[in-house]
Structure formats: structure tokens, C-alpha cells
Amino acid sequence: MSHDDFPTADPAVVTCGLPYANGDLHIGHLRTYVGGDVYSRALERLGQETAFVSGSDMHGTPVAVNAEQEGVSPEAFALDWHERYAETFPKFNVEFDNYGHTHDETNTAVTQELVRDLDEAGHLYEKEIMVAYDPVDDQYLPDRYVEGTCPYCGAHARGDECDEGCQRHLEPGEVEDPESTITGNPAEYRERTHKFFAVSEFADYLSDFLDRLEGTSNARNQPREWIEQGLQDWCITRDMDWGIDLPGGNPQDLVLYVWVDAPIEYISSTKQYSERVGADAFDWEATWKEGASDDHPEGGEIVHVIGRDIIQHHTIFWPAMLEATDHAEPRAVMASGFVTLDGKGFSTSRDRAVWADEYLDEGFHPDPLRYYLATNGGFQQDVDFSWEKFAERVNTELVGTVGNFLYRSLLFAHRNFEGGPDADAPSDDVAARIDEAVDDVAAAVNDYSVRALGDAVTDLARYGNEYIQRNEPWKLVDEAPDEAEQVIYDCVALAKAIGVLFEPLGPEKSERLWEQLGEPGSVHETTVEAAREGPAGDLSEPTELFEQIEDERVEALNEKLEARVAEAEADDGDEERDDGADATDDDGTDANADEADADDTDMTDIEPLSDDRISFDDFQELDIRVGRIEDAVGIDGADELLKLTVDLGAETRTIVAGLKQLHDVDDLPDTKVIVLANMEKAELFGVESNGMVLAAGEEADLLTTYEGAGPGTKVK
Asked: Where is this motif: 'HIGH' region (predicted)?
């Protein structure tokens, strides 16, 4: 791993959190997989050697419970869902280089080998712990077989996670007032011997690792609090039959905790890919093992793309396992925000979801959804989906901006220049603008921003529309034909650049554009350098790439959704369509873990609008100003608070804000923020705070300005 700007000389592997093999996928689940696919393709466009891998998470208690309810084996149950996922992802142009699963022979062998290495290196030990036990049903209750109260915040907790409160990982025996989820019987705790991984030994390493870690700021900031609070060692075994057996002496027939073998599937899936294509094409050991290759002594560029509710596993447990066994550490973790539907959480029990297969059955192309999910907000921000918002983005940006430029340019070129316009090269201004777009794409990749990838394309198309409108080739074609030919050649060059740069977001539409341009080969085999090259193909008559979504269509889709939700609520007692595929993986891993079911957790619930109104005069009394952060430093003794120096135009103030765990402190200077300037002064940890910085949601999404309003500008 180099930490140099991409592309680097080291091989890269991009992974997505494993979907939990336990239910249907809806479009909220697709956000991380689309994001991973977009990022992987963008790396390849830069010329980076890249493998994109994932797999289905097959183990854990929900699979065992639901398989028993359906009267099939856990393996058969999970394999059925695995095969459905393997068929669904390509339908959305999410194309893994390898998609395996955690129960296959490769992952079983790699997992047991890594656990043996942990043991031989002295990082595992046995400990007597209290495990929940159902005395009526005569069985132990691992993970989601038990529920009760979180000992840390008092909220309802399920097995290994406080899912409705502090989101903390819970060890066996920690849940208070335990009950069996199988029988409803009160449970009791009994002593059992289990294996532990001494994660606490790696606290200093993990603190340094987070300093090096790239990706989204939430992936760096969130784990620091856990380290500061003191890391607890990690129980890596469970009392159940379904899972990978603990290697070595195993008199109690324990299996490994699902969160041991799930991330190891990243290694296993890369290994399977390497074995299929050959080590010369992609060397999995050079990527994952330190010292395995003289050319890559520190391993490759490992990028994990996950839902934010599994940050702890990917930034604490997993890197500690890798460090302990001489594997390469991740270079970056990209943790996405949640997805809501019309401002509310996805709900499987009320069928309030837009299912993946439903989207396709409605006749929509996958690429517009990819574009929407990738570009609607920053990757770590929450995204709200509605048919209205989806239609607006498609109609305005894909149809009105990108599609409009491509169609009008290529149609004019086809009709007026047989085979296409001819010129020596794009004009200087156009060539410079294409270079700028290529640089924007490279910057987006190195900033881990899939949104910026989309902005680079739409901005280039917007420039193209302005260029063709400004030069009016329809007038020049008779008055100055040579000049007209150069203008249209420039437009076709812009269209070619768009085809290359849009490929990560809309691979199928980009390939279709490539064919209309008559360019040789496939756009999927190009790098960004092809965007700088003038067009060379024979143009065919173009067709429009994107289809307008009419208001009537949106109304019909909303009516279908509302009717379905009403029917599900009327049934009320019916079983859920999936019993855990959305939201928090139910046993730890992704499902994709970036959407929380509103029925099961409060993580995506939107508070109802207040009925208490204020007058316009009351609002006018609020002095809300644009500010610019000049400096940000931590406050001694306060885990979450920062002392901000904020320029408010007329004066500079000190404001205390709870942003330390939620933002990269080094990135805050020069950030424009919105400040309630006439907030009462308050003293916090000995620092006087003179104002309030406004932010949205639990992740403190800072409010800012869209255009160039300077410090001191009043918000009206």
C-alpha cells in the first residue's frame, strides 16, 4: 500500500460489505454495491489494476432460525438467497470480478488458517463467560437467539448489538433481562468456555491506523471514541451448529462468530479470482499479504465500501486481525449513509420499499438508478428516495443536460457530415475543458467521492450545451462550413469524453454511446486517456440515451406503493417479505447494512414536523449568518467538542460544537457554515461559546451555502 495518488503501481482490491443471505434486496441495499462498482470502474478508468470482489454472508443465527421455520437446512436456505443475489447484481450492472460466499471451501480453509495463525501468535485465549440459556427448551442462545436490554444505554438490544440505542457491539452475556427469541422463555446465564481475540493489545496500532486511514471521515472519527473508552477483547466463538468450525481442539463443538469469517471472505474471493485468471493477471497474495511480493512489500491498495453501521467491524476488529497475521491493512474505508423512502425508513413488514426486482419490472433501466444513488448527496450522507425526486434528477440531469447535449450534437453531425466531422484536433478551449474534466475525475477518485464523478460528467455536458448554443453551428454550416465542422468536431470530441468518463456510473448507456460514435472496441476497456483523444469512428444515426419520466408515471408508481403499504398494514400480523435482508445484517454483516428498517430500529426514523408554529416576526429575531471556520481544535477533557474560530464578517467568534467524532478536524478550516449568531453565550469545559453552528441529523451534516455568500451574509 502506497498512499500515493491513484493510479499507483500496487494492485487494488475494492470490496463491498457482504449481503446477508436472508431476504430480498430493495434499492436501498443497492447503494453500497452501486457505490463500490462505480468506484472500482473509476479506478480502472484511471489505469489502476483493480479487482472488485464480494460474496454472500451465509452464517449466523437469523439464517439458522429462518431455515428451521421453512423446514430446510441452513445451507440450502442461504444458498438459495446467495444465488438470487448473484443473479440480481448484474441486472444493475454491478459486476464483481468474483462473487463467492462464506460457506464455500475456499473461505472455510482461509478462515481456519487465519484463526490458527492468530492462535499460534498468542493472540487468542480461552475464558469462562456467561452465555444465555433457555432452560425450558434446553439450548444455548447465541447472538440473535436472545434479546433484552442494553447494559450501556438501556435500550432494547438484540444479541450482539444494541440495535435500537447506542449501536454498540455487545459480547455474549452482556444483554440484561435476556429472553429467548425462539420460545419467548426467560433465559438464564450459564458459564461456558469460549475463545477470545485480544483486540485490546492492538489499541495503539489501531489509533495510528485511523490516522492513516483514507475514505470517508465517519469511518475515521467514529471508532476513535471506542478506542478512547478502552477496547474490550472479542469473543470469536458461538454455541451453535451452523458456521465454520473452530480449528484445532474443539471439545464443545463451537463455531466461529460470523464476524470472523465474513470479512475473511474478502481475501477468499480475491484468491478465487486470482486462481481463475492467473496470478500474472492479478496476484491475490501480493495484494493481501505483507512481504509476499518484492514488488509490493506492503501489499496492495485495499478499499472497503460499507454501510456506516458496520464501521466498528471494519476499523477495529478486522484491521486488528490483519495486523496480527501479517496481512496488509486497508488503505480506505468508504462508509455510506442510510437511505430512506419519502422521508421514512424502509419497512419490510409494511412492504414500504421499492424492491430491486420491482424497479426492473417497471421497465426502468438500471443506469439512471445507479446515477441517482451515486450522486444524490455525499457518500456518507443519508439519501432520501422518492419517485418524484428520482424523476426530477433523471429528467433534469440525464435527459435535459447529458442526453440533450449528446443527441443534438450527434444528430447534427450525422445529418451534416457524412461519417462524422473531420478536423485535426479539438480546439484549444475544448481540449482544455476535457483535460479539466479528466482531472476532476482523478480528484474524485482520490477524494473517494462517487458524487464528484457524476458532477464531472454533468458539468462537462453542461459546458457542451453552452458551447454548441454559443457557436450556433446550424447558422455556420452555410455561412462558414469549415468553422461549423470544427464546432461539431469539438462537440463529438466532448461526447466521446463523456462516454469514457460516464462509464463508471452508466456502463450500459456509455457502451451504447460508444457504438453510436463508431469508436473501436469497448468503452469498458478504455482509460481516461481516451477522453483526450479526438473522435475517430464513423457516426451512426443516434438515438436518445435517456427516457423522460412523466408526471403521470410518477403518480401511478406512488399509488402502487401506497396501496401496497395499506394492504400490508391491514394484514398487520403477516410475516415480513424478508426476515432480515435489509437493515442491520441481523448478525453483523451487511445486508447491505446501509438501510435500517423503520420497524426494527430508530436509525432512519424522521421526526414528525412540529405543529407548533412561530410568526414571521419571531423568525426575524433569529440572527442567522454565514460563517467561515478559520481554526478547529479539540477541547481537553471533552471527547466530542471542538473549539471553532469562526469568521462572521463583522467579527470573529469562538464557538464550541460537538463535531469532533463526526468530522475530520483537519478538513474543517475554510468550511463555510451557518451560524445562529444571537444564541445565548454558554461556557463548556471552560470555553465560552458565542453562537451555534447549525447541522442536520445525528451525523452533524453541516449546513452551508450553495453559491458564493461570504461571511456575515444574513440568512433570510
From this structure: 19-29
Burial class of residue 552 (count of CB atoms within 10 Å of its CB; 0-12, 13-18, 19+): exposed
CATH for 113-256?
Answer: 2.170.220.10
pTM score: 0.80
Each residue of 557-587: pLDDT tens digit? 999 988 887 887 776 544 333 333 333 333 3
- Pick from 617, 426, 605, 410: nearest CA to 519: 410
Is 162 within any annotated ligand binding site? yes
In sequence order, the β-bridge partners of residue 345 are 340
Do the annotations mark residue 235 as ligand-binding? Answer: no
Quick one: which of 423, 399, 541, 398 has its CA closest to 491?
Answer: 423
- Maximum separation of any 2 CA atoms in the chain, in Å: 93
Q: Per the annotation, does 150 bind a ligand? A: yes
The domain segmentation of the chain, as residue ranges, is 113-256, 386-532, 616-702
* Cα–Cα dist 440/442, whole Å: 5
**Domains 113-256 and 616-702 are alike in CATH topology:** no
Q: Which residues pair with 45 in a beta bridge?
A: none
- Taking residues 319-332, report their average pLDDT: 97
**Residue 471 DSSP one-character state:** H
* CATH class label, 386-532: mainly alpha
Q: Which CATH number fits domain 616-702: 2.40.50.140, 3.40.50.410, 3.40.50.1970, 3.60.15.10?
A: 2.40.50.140
